Amino acid sequence: MALLDQSDALQKASQPVSERLVGDVLRLLKAQGFAGLVPQLSAYTIASVLALALDLAAFNVLLLAGVRAALAGVAGYASGLILHFVLSSRYVFRTEGSAKTGTQRFVEFSLSGGVGLVMTWAIIHVATDFAHLPAMAAKGAAVVASFIVVFVLRRSIVFAGARP
Predict the structure, then answer these.
(1) Which one of 10, 58, 85, 142 is CB 3.0 to 4.6 Å from 123, fit for a cystine?
(2) Burial (0-12, 13-18, 19+ Cβ within 10 Å), 70
């Protein structure tokens, strides 16, 4: 049995990251029952849209106030991240019965957002600089990919372990 597990691990390690990620996402959907994910995914989507709206509003207000664009961008992103955490903690994922503190969840939530940020950069970089795709097409692909990965990370790691 251990030899079989090692063989599976070696086969999985030799797969490209994108193949492993898709496989992991599909296994999660199957294990959790896709129908059961729809309400949670819908609530997560709404939280994401509201967080993005706050991010953009803060960004624009700060730009109008004369704040440099990069700093305004960071402040907008941070405000959206905080709102998304609050909404996710209250309306999307269960936190009751979790052994994690709110601070620990926020740190993990922020790190998962960092994963999405790096993914976004990498996808846009490769798509525009190497595949010569239009920037908006690259951004669209990055948004979809990072949304799925970050949702899975938050569902399976950040908010895992809470009791229903």
Answers:
(1) 142
(2) exposed
